Amino acid sequence: MRILGSSQFDQCVLTIALVHLCNQESYVGQQLHHIYQADDSSEPTNNPWLTSHWFTIYIPHPDQEFEEITLEQGLTRGYNVEVKQINHPDQIPYTLPRKAHFVMVLKQKGLNQDYALAATGIFIRPLAVLKLDIIDDIDQAIYQPVFVKHPIIRDYPSGWEQKIRQYLNQEISSEVLPDVVSYVDRATNSDYRPPTWDEIYLAAQGFVGV
């Protein structure tokens, strides 16, 4: 049975999660740097994104309430995205090429209920794209592949889908991929302002542009 629907809310949560993943100054970006600062075994690096990580995106119920923060504030700040190191690569259902990251999506089954696995996928950071396999039927192993693109990037480079396939098949390296993410990362573009949850949700409804 499919858990992750095609609702506008679900799509917007995935979109703003991608926004946070692309921005090194976001909450999850800072958490990633803290992991390396706290881990004595990690090799010193100014760019921990060069190493593959495990990201978990939580899709809450639209009416879920939280203590001391609204749902909208939490999504805008990216508190629903977690990161950890990959300690057991055999737990990941993909062969990750260099600079690719594993993504697991958990969706709340109902108001005040637990979360269930809804999708898995890969974050291709240079291209600012999430490639997800949405679970249609977990028992029959039926999945629907989808791409989540950054809302600020209006025109992706020509042939980007083909390059992703080549990259995931390890036919080309990450260095060959177009550098799209630098435009939507405040660490490399100080003029960039990440959109808020309200801006993304209203834009999806056709009211405003981000």
Structure description:
Helix content is 24%, strand content 23%. The termini are far apart. It has 5 helices and 6 strands, in the order ααβαβββββαα. Strands 2-1-3-4-5-6 form a 6-stranded mixed beta sheet. The protein is of the alpha+beta class and 210 residues long.
Q: Which short descriptors sum up this protein?
A:
210 residues; alpha+beta; six-stranded mixed sheet; 5 helices; 6 strands; 23% strand; globular
Layout of secondary structure:
Elements: H1 8-22, H2 27-38, E1 53-59, H3 71-77, E2 81-85, E3 100-108, E4 115-124, E5 129-137, E6 142-149, H4 160-168, H5 197-204
Parallel strand pairs: 1-3
Antiparallel strand pairs: 1-2, 3-4, 4-5, 5-6
How would you summarize this macromolecular structure in one to three sentences?
The protein contains 5 helices and 6 strands. Strand 4 and strand 5 form a beta hairpin. By secondary structure, it is an alpha+beta fold.
Lateral strand order in the biggest sheet:
2-1-3-4-5-6
- Helix and strand string, N-terminal first? HHEHEEEEEHH
Helicity level:
10-25%
Molecular shape: globular
Number of helices: 5
Give a short account of the largest sheet: 6 strands, mixed
Derived structural class: alpha+beta
Runs in which pLDDT lies below 50 for 5 or more consecutive residues are none
CA distance, first residue to last residue: 34 Å
Radius of gyration using CA atoms only:
17 Å
Mean pLDDT: 91
Q: Strand portion, in percent?
A: 15-25%
- Please, how many domains? 1
Give the beta-strand count. 6
